[in-house]
Each structure stands twice: as C-alpha cells, then as structure tokens.
Amino acid sequence: MSQESPAAQESAVPRTAAAVDRRGFLRLVGALGAATAIAGSVAACGGPSSTAAGSAGGAAGGSDGTIEAGISYALSTGFDPMTSSGATPVAANLHVFEGLVDLDPATRQPYAALATAMPQQVDDTTWRAQLRSGATFHDGSPVTAEDVVFSFARVLDPANSSLIVQFLPFLDKVTAVDANTVEFGLKYAFPLFASRISVVKVVPKKIVEADQKAFDAKPTGSGPYKVVEATRQDKIAFQRHDAYNGPRPAKAAAMVWRLTSDPTARVSSLVSGRVQAIEDVPYVDVAGLKGKAVTRSVESFGNLFLMFNFARKPFDDKRVRQALHYALDVEKIVATAMYGNGIPSTSYLQPSHPDYHKAATVYGHDPEKARALLAEAGAGGLAVTLLTTNTGWVNDIAPLIKESWDAVGVRTTLDIGDSSGQYKKVDAGDFGVMAAPGDPSVFGNDVDLLLRWFYGAGVWSTKRFRWAGSPEDQQVRDLLDRAARSADPAARSALWNQAIDLVAEQAVLYPVVHRKLPTAWNDQKLAGFTPLPTTGLSFLGVSAA
Q: Model's pTM, two decimal places?
C-alpha cells in the first residue's frame, strides 16, 4: 500500500477571518511585543543553552550544536513506549527508541531501523528479521534478539494493558532464532506485517525488568538521541548517542525541548530566537510570523471529533447523533476559529490520505434536517452538556458548536477542562457528548490501524463511547478482520470503505474537521527540517547551524 506524505502548503489567513476576531489580533500583538521585549536579554546572555553541546565532539552524527524547540504539550504520560500516549513523549520517543522497522515521521514510509533490511517472509504466517550489527542501547549494552522478543512479549501480555496490543491481533509468537535473528509466527497471513511492527519499539530487557518506573521516567533506547533530563512542566534535554550506527544519526550534539503550553510564550520564544522551531502555532499567529519564520500548515488525520455515550439516552439513537452533526456550521468553524487551517470532514480519513474514500454519509450544514431528525427521535428541546478539553484550538471552536446547536433548539452548556480531568468523567460514564482532538496517526498511517484505535476491541469502544457489543460494533470489527486477512489490495480497500461508511452513518465517534497542523521554524538556524502531518516535531536528520 502506498503511503505518501500529505503535501505541505504555505498557510494563508483569509482577510475576512482575520478581521472578525479582535481578541485574536490583540493576542498576536501581545505575543510579538513580548518577543521584542525579551529578544535583547536573550541575545545578551547567549541563549539558555549556548554551551550545552560542547562535549559531544565529532561523532558520526554530524555538527556540534544544540537544537532548541518550543513544544505545546506537557509530559502527560511517561516515556515507556508500551504505554505512552501523550503527544510530547510519543514525539520524543521517535528520537530515543527504534523498532525493527520505523515509519519516516514526515513521509510515513517504512524503513529498516534496528533491522538490517525489511523483514523477510518465510511463508504465509512466518516472517524473519535480522538485527543491525553493532547496535547498542544508550547504556552501551548490545541490542540482542532477546531484547526484541522481550519487547514484543510485554506488549502482548494482557497483564500490561498496552495501548499497542490492539494493533497486533495477527501476532501469535515471537522467538529468537539466534542472537541476531528474530522470527514471528502469525495467527493468519497479514499483508501489512512489515510496516505494522513499527508500533513496537525495542527496549532493553535488563533495564526494564530492574525498574520499570525509573525506565518510564527516564528511558533508555537505541535511537540517535538519549534523554538526560525530563521535567514535566519545563523541558526535555537530549544528548547525541555517539555509538548509534543506524540510518538516522543525530546531526546535532544536543536538543532542548521547552515545554511551553502557553501559545503566546511559544510564539515569543521563536521570534526572540530562544528556540529554532515550534509546533502547534496558534492559528491567529500564523500570518504575523511570516517574514520572521518559515510557517507551514500540513494536512493531517488529526481531527476534532464528536463522541457520544452510547449507553446514555438519547445518544443511543443514531438520529440524535446525526442531528448534532448536521447542525454544525463547520465552514464557519474553519473560517473563524481555525483561520482556514482545517478541512470539514467528508470521511473518517483526510482527503490527502492515500486510501481516502468519501463516506456515503457526509454531514453538511443542514439545520432543517437536524431539527427533523431530533423530532423523529423524540428529542425536541434536548438539553446537552458538551464536554471539551481546554486545548487552545478546541477552546476556540467550542463556542461555535454551542452556537450551532442552540440555533436548532438544543440547549447547550459547555464544560471545558483539562484533558485528564475530562477523560476521568468519560471513563466513569459521566458524560453525554464530548468534543476532543484525536490523532492515532502518530502510531501509523494505514486504514486498519487508524480505525482500530477507536473502533477496535480497546478502551474507546468499551470504556468511552460504550458501543462494544452492539451489532454495528461487531460489523465494523468483522469488516476490519476480513480486510486484514485479504491479500488482494482492491478487496481490502473495498472492505475498509464499507467500514468507513458504517462509522460515518453511525457517528458514535466521528470527525467534525481534520486539522492542518501549523509549524514554524527558523530555516537559517535549522538545516533539513520538515514539518509533520502528525502532532509533534522531528529532528531526525536535522542539523543546527
């Protein structure tokens, strides 16, 4: 299956969108003013880490220099790749850990990482991979087949409640043939095997077994960078792994990721020169950064979805769920809250995805249809509390959702809070409707993986939107399982398309809008940098001028 990167395109803020938001204008002025005020003091002291990279020397990775970046999210989880799901640790792990196969962060194409070559198929249900000679973990110990077997076994062990196991339903056993060769036994033929095993990162058995909690807080991998410090609300500091001999060597001696959730401070840090790149550029700030940095918005799978509690009436009725989608003026959301950096969803997938299929049900703005569906379902005069997270761009969208729903007679109350607190309510069943961001594409880009994240036999369908056990839930899983076993790409796509049509029609968890992800960087200070179609930043192959 082809996996092409969504085309990066220069962001543009429509004049009409910019004109309607005085709050946004004032925020931009404040950000740039603050940047100007601190620029002199930063220049005077030489920056926060001007000498941090001096000890790395002329390692195979490249130049001596420090890359500094402004990261939008705090450390919400640990680093252990078996369980890590936070945006920041997952992005950090791209630099710290390797799989036998990894996906290029920008193109999403698979390549041999710890393996010497892509895994070789022995027969329908047997694959083998050879480890890269001389690969070492950050503590200097060699990477062995035993470490690979351990890494997969801990993911597959139900006692560990790994988030990754739902992507490996085909995997039966992993064994070491010798010290450098691993063999995989499958339950059934799975054509996507070679790229799918990228979800499992190889960890050092000895270190993890000795103290898993310490490993989770300060990880040891075999990747080009190692973590030397991680402070939850402050920063992650990395140094180059000088013994790394893989395909993506570090081209800077060190990195410092400044965890800067405040968008004004993040923009200021780039304009002042304190950092060379920032993720999650506030939509309102994109235009103001032109001329000060390179800014691009990349189309992504990342989206804002509506999720309904299927176990609570009237949200068990698909007419109610559909009505609340039809009521939304998504074009207005994109123009005013996102400044054009979004695409109204016409499928579970974004249009640039190589397997994009326009869903049979597309939720255009249709207030009359919304009212009619609510009346049919006996839900006229519905009162809804909309649970949302306080992520910046979601905050900007939430009032427009309320406005759209109020306009069709739905009495809407907003409940906005931090992500961890809101999901505690969700997991306790204490919600009716939630609007939240989602992006499982950080784990992989094929349709099977993207659908299984939400609709597989995992936490979402069982504990969150509580759809598990319904006939439609079983139908989606059957379609995915049949597609997974199909060796015919055309037949596989047809089954995926049926699953997409079904989840669109049911709308128990379904995207409202797919995001364009704005990233900004100083191209005079970074060489080889590329913005990603996923949350986070990648500095693999990037050097600091």
A: 0.84
